[in-house]
Amino acid sequence: MKWIEFTDINQLNDISQPFIIFKHSTRCPISGMAKRNVELEADMIPDNVPAFFLDLIKYRDLSNQIAERYSVRHESPQLLLISEGRCAYDASHSDISVSAVVSAIAGL
Question: pTM higher than 0.85, yes or no?
Answer without folding.
Answer: yes
